[in-house]
């Protein structure tokens, strides 16, 4: 497991249409690019918070109980496999049907972006499953910080790019026409990761 693998998975998760994208689209279409980008940036802060809590918790768990950590790692692999199968079976990008909302202030747009990530329990479980595959015994604080920053920066950049170019290019139409391909690619990546984790655990 290396940093590039983490980047690919985080990017696949960010690009895959979901409720977070719907909120970014609503504020972008209703208030403009600035509101959309503020939504995306604050969403990334929420992602960073979940990532920080998850990495810190897993690091402590490794020190306390290796057996418990192995169980969480395998359970996380199972959850990633389930997400992969779900993504492969997905047939629509409902989030892309979001219409323009009423114009909102930058503060309101930012608050919506932060809350949709912080209050999303699926995001918490996803990070637990994902980071359990990358956190290793003896990982430095710099390594942990890199993981947190990677997840947050990729998330924030993606949503900012969507908001920035939404009104100028065919980003929304491209996402809509490729939503199934995106989901299938994400599904394959998650399944491969899950299989790799199981293989490593069996051989260890």
From TrEMBL:
<keyword id="KW-1003">Cell membrane</keyword>
<feature type="transmembrane region" description="Helical">
    <location>
        <begin position="114"/>
        <end position="135"/>
    </location>
</feature>
<dbReference type="Pfam" id="PF01810">
    <property type="entry name" value="LysE"/>
</dbReference>
<feature type="signal peptide">
    <location>
        <begin position="1"/>
        <end position="22"/>
    </location>
</feature>
<feature type="transmembrane region" description="Helical">
    <location>
        <begin position="38"/>
        <end position="63"/>
    </location>
</feature>
<keyword id="KW-0472">Membrane</keyword>
<keyword id="KW-0812">Transmembrane</keyword>
<keyword id="KW-0732">Signal</keyword>
<dbReference type="InterPro" id="IPR001123">
    <property type="entry name" value="LeuE-type"/>
</dbReference>
<keyword id="KW-1133">Transmembrane helix</keyword>
<feature type="transmembrane region" description="Helical">
    <location>
        <begin position="141"/>
        <end position="166"/>
    </location>
</feature>
<protein>
    <submittedName>
        <fullName>LysE family translocator</fullName>
    </submittedName>
</protein>
